[in-house]
Amino acid sequence: MNSSTQQHEWDGIYYDGVSAVPHHVTVQVRPNGMQIIARSGSQLSWRYQDVRQTQGKYEGEEVRFERGNGICETLAIADSKILYSLHEVAPDQVSHFHNPARRRQRFSLTILAGIASIPLLWAAFSWGIPWMSGPITTLIPISWEEELGEILTTKFAPPEKQCTDQQVVESLQTIVATLSRSIESNPYSFTVHIVDNPTVNALAAPGGQIIIFRGLLKNTQSANEMAGVLAHEMQHVLHRHSLRLIVQQASMGIVVGALSGDVSGIMTFGLQAAHVLQTLSYSRDKEEHADKLGLLLLLRTGINPEGMIQFFKSINPEPKEKKKALQPLSHYFTTHPATDERIQRLRALIPPTFNPTTSLLPNNNWTQIRERCNSADIETAE
């Protein structure tokens, strides 16, 4: 892609930080700042020095800018080419924004180095993958990621260990469909699988596969709580967090197979990825990222975000209750840091004027739904 562009106007979505209502706007890139023009004709001017970029460092990822502190103003632009325009129009003003031209230059140099020296390429992949997992992940096509997700699903949710109760499956899939309608530029078709296992856990496999363990389902007190869990896991999928961790652990040969689309490479990768996903532990910033964007997704959908907070409270018992509760919740504690600080961060994101507008599964009794998958406990497949 040529880094130069003549386009200086972009479609975007603006959130004012007061309500969860999205405003469709036109964003003009100017030498001293961005001009935000609403359909009503009202305008805002954002100086570059007042704005920070919080998303859009990876190719194809939505670009997000924020201004202010706490519940801040947010501007989302689906087309990442706006970054080229910013660096073209105001290079001295936007040095703190990601420059995609540098990313492409780095990849070009890497390819040339590989052609010149196969041993050097081997060393680069063997030692450099943990550092290059983000850029490498962006090169893996969605279709390949979806195949990998299906392979992993057969490992963690084989048909004989899935809860196939139609009412339960349809209820969870309805919640996912409701959330998905508020996601712009979504490349995934999310599918929920319920594993007949008492463990309180959920996994976001690559490619849109979400695995919910029966123990977690039974620990939710409402459809809103389950929506909070699903919104969180959907953000892990959308931002390819699990795929990036899997790439970090992969050998050079497997990654090359991924980039070339080799089917046998996918199978080999799937076997190794299953172990990685089973012991998956996201970094603190990835969890905070999924928390924040998951809660914002609930707000955009009009779902009461208190469900997400109440679920985290339920898996973070008081000290006198922890000894009794710790065993069934141990896996969720090790992979999802449910803490008072986490809950406080989520509460700070909820506008005081927010009123829920979406009622999930209004004609169903959630207590009955969560108890329908209640066969004999089966130990987790290793």
Plain-language structure description:
This protein is α+β, with helices and mostly antiparallel strands and 382 residues long. The protein folds into 3 domains: 9-98, PH-domain like (Roll), CATH 2.30.29; 103-138, no CATH class; 142-371, no CATH class. 51% of the residues lie in helices and 14% in strands. It is built from 15 helices and 10 strands. The chain has helices spanning 82-89, 100-116, 118-139, 142-156, 166-180, 214-219, 223-238, 241-249, 252-260, 263-278, 284-301, 306-314, 319-335, 340-349, 366-371, and strands at 9-15, 23-30, 33-38, 43-47, 51-55, 63-67, 73-77, 191-195, 202-205, 209-213. The strands form 2 sheets. Strands 4-3-2-1-7-6-5 form a 7-stranded antiparallel β-sheet. The longest helix is centred in the middle third of the chain and has 22 residues, at 118-139. The protein is globular and about 60 Å long. Residues 318-331 and 376-382 have low confidence and may be disordered.
